[in-house]
Structures are given as C-alpha cells and as structure tokens.
Amino acid sequence: MATCCRRISIFISLLMFTAAVALVIVSLLTEYWFESRPVNEKGAASKYNYVHSGLFKGSRQLDWGLGPRYKTFTVYAEVHEGINFFARVPWIFILFFIALGLLWNVIGVIISIVNTAVKENDTIAGPIGIYFWSILALISYGSALIIFLIEYATSIKLNFKLFILLDGDCNGVTIDTQCSYVFNSRATAQS
C-alpha cells in the first residue's frame, strides 16, 4: 500500500512539473507581459492606441490623427538599438533565470519519471530530489519575477512615458500601464 501511495504522489509531482514547464513556455510566447493604453484628458481610451510586449516580441499601434499606425517589433532588435522599454542587462538576467528554472523543471520531470518506475532510493535522484529540483525551479522563477518587477518599476513605465512624449503632441494624455494584469500605474504626460 505504501509503495502504491508513493508512486501516485510521484506521478502527481510529474504532472505538476509538466504543467509548470507548459505554463512557463506559454508565458514566454505571449506578447502581454505588459500593456499600455494612452487615455485622453477626459479619461476616454481610444481602441486604436495600444502598446503591448512580452519578453521576445510585441506590437504597438498609435493614432496621432492620421489614422492608426501598427508596428510589430522584436525585443531583441530594439534592445540592441537602444530604443526598447527593457534595459539590456536585466532582460538578459530575466531570460537566464527563466531558462535555469526550465532546466530544473525538466530535471524534475526526468526524476519523477524514473521514480515512478524504479525502486525508491534516498539520494538526490530519489523522491528527495523532487523537492530539491522544485525548490531550485522556484528560486529561479522567483528571481526572474523580482528582476522583471524591478525592471517594470524602474525602466518600462518610464520609457513608455518618454516614448509617448517623443512621438507626438500629448497635451493632457495619461498613460495607463499595466503589468501582467496585476500592477496598474498612471503617469500624466505634460508637454
């Protein structure tokens, strides 16, 4: 009975590791790590004005009076040109810690598969290793999250405001910036 419960719990950890890998890959592919919408002085937002970006690509569409102008961009190209919302070094560290977390998750998947089929041992390749790889993945993803939030607070919000100020007349335009639907900030742009 104990062996059956152990194998079921290890199989559940295998499913959780696999779900974690899938969620991280989906989050890397999304273009909505942050989204910004200019709002006029009356509080009305135009559906034609937006900027959103993920870690690898994004798009912006702004309407300054001659119709909306849509442009897709890659974060890599804009980081190297120096015109992106992200600073180069934190962006690289975010990618590094996410890749490291994915590595720990994949190792956890392998350890879970092995421990579902073979006899238990008390090494790092056994059930104890499942905790170890989970904690390492948690630390890596947590580090990436903290760096992203610092980058968002110090660079992304401010650079988006400068982007609006440099690209057109924005008397009384407010910038509504959201970070992953959790954080919301407002900054008033004045010319």
Which shape, going by the Cα principal axes?
A: elongated
* Low-confidence runs: 162-174, 179-191
Multimeric state: single chain
Helix share bin: 55-70%
Strand order of the largest sheet: 4-3-2-1-5-6
- Estimate nothing, just give the exact number of structural domains: 1
Instruction: Give the strand tally.
Output: 6
Family: Belongs to the clarin family.
Transmembrane segments: 12-34, 91-118, 130-150
Subcellular location: Membrane
Membrane topology: Multi-pass membrane protein
Q: How would you describe this protein?
A:
- It is found in: Membrane.
- With 191 residues, the chain is an alpha+beta fold.
- It is 55% helix and 20% strand.
- It has one domain (2-189): Up-down Bundle (Butyryl-CoA Dehydrogenase, subunit A, domain 3), CATH 1.20.140.
- The radius of gyration is 22 Å and the shape is elongated.
